[in-house]
Amino acid sequence: MNFHNLNKKVVWLLSLVLITSLLASCGSKSNTGGKTLSSSKSTKSKGLKGLFFKPATEDPGVFNGEIVAVNRKGWSQPTPFGMVLVPSGSYLMGQGDEDPSRSAINFPRRVTVSAFFMDDTEITNYEYRQFVESILRDSLSVLGETKIMSDYYPDTTRWAEDLKMPGYQTRDFTYGDPMTENYFSSPAFDMYPVVGVNWSAAKYFCDWRSKLMNNYRKTQGLANLPRFTLPTESEWEWAARGGRASAKYPWGNPYLSNAKGCLLANFKPHRGNYDADGYEYTAPANAYSPNDYGLYNMAGNVAEWCEDAFEENASAVTWDLNSINRDANNPRKVVRGGSWKDIGYYLETGTRTFEFEKNKRSYVGFRCVMRYLGRPASR
């Protein structure tokens, strides 16, 4: 027997099997970056011609007389400047501690939230000033100066009005004038959260910010990104918890101060002692430590507008997936997080309260979110 020739045949057969296997493995994915060839919606071809034929364009849409399932080239969703990615998740929404007096309007319920980007701080005076100056420059003829100044310009007089003693609304017992004169206009407060802005103005800011971003992307030939909005109540609470399922406060532990006795947020810790936390009014938007998602001041400093209308029985009128209560006829809008003038109860991640949508307050601000399209890779 000629073993030399036999060895040659064996080697030739093994080589043929190897080539066939390689061709089969190479053909397991569509050459257009879409579904596999085993799928009924793929670039089906017969023989080597189908395997090695290169379409004339990267995104053919139709190939060999059939529609092609492909991903369009060039898409990615960048993290907007000043925002952080909050991953999707499911949690028990509601009060993180026993509260018999408020349990009727804050019944715990399981909800799921999709991923989204969120401003790491409240919108600052500097950021909001860009918005006001822009619409005064570009939309004056459409909106009119009176509407812009009355509806969208921060009401700085709230510093004096909100601090009047109950029952003495015609007399000012406070020292609010310096804040009225300087808070929004002075460079000293550029990085402080904007206040004196109602719910409607906050939403208009979101619309303006969305157009500003996508108009620029259009000039660069890029696809539009999702628009900026106010966070829903379920998104806000999920973000405030920072990944800690049952956190009473954004920093996790059940106390308002650390082991050294340092207060962890800007609020009203003692009767009349607003300065105990380091600031008698608001603090810079990035003061104190962020939570585990990198979000600053999710408790205290200024309370924050949410998208939802406020209902006591929210668990009965909202769904459990990306829940939101869109009731245009309800003027009460959800406010979360507590502020520099609130007691510790309002700083809890599960505490719910509201403000009327047209009201402007010296202790209510906001931050924006942007939906994440798809599911981010796990960390």
List keywords for this structure.
four-stranded antiparallel β-sheet, alpha+beta, 379 residues, globular
Radius of gyration based on Cα positions: 29 Å
- The ordered H/E elements are HHEEEEEEHHHHHHEHEHEEEE
The end-to-end distance, rounded to whole angstroms, is 63 Å
Q: Note the overall shape.
A: globular
Fraction of residues in β-strands:
5-15%
Roughly how much helix do the residues carry, as a percent range? 25-40%
Point out poorly predicted stretches. Answer: 26-56
Overall number of strands: 12
* Main pleated sheet: 4 strands, antiparallel
Q: Structural class per helix/strand content? A: alpha+beta
Widest sheet, order of strands: 3-6-12-7
Helices, by number, come to 10
Averaged pLDDT, please?
83
Question: What would a concise description of this structure say?
Answer:
The chain has 379 residues and is α+β, with helices and mostly antiparallel strands.
Give the topology, please:
Layout: H1 3-26, H2 47-52, E1 62-63, E2 66-67, E3 83-86, E4 89-93, E5 109-113, E6 116-119, H3 125-138, H4 140-143, H5 145-152, H6 158-161, H7 177-182, H8 199-219, E7 228-229, H9 233-241, E8 303-309, H10 314-317, E9 332-336, E10 353-356, E11 364-365, E12 369-371
Parallel strand pairs: 8-11
Antiparallel strand pairs: 1-2, 3-6, 4-5, 6-12, 7-12, 8-9, 9-10
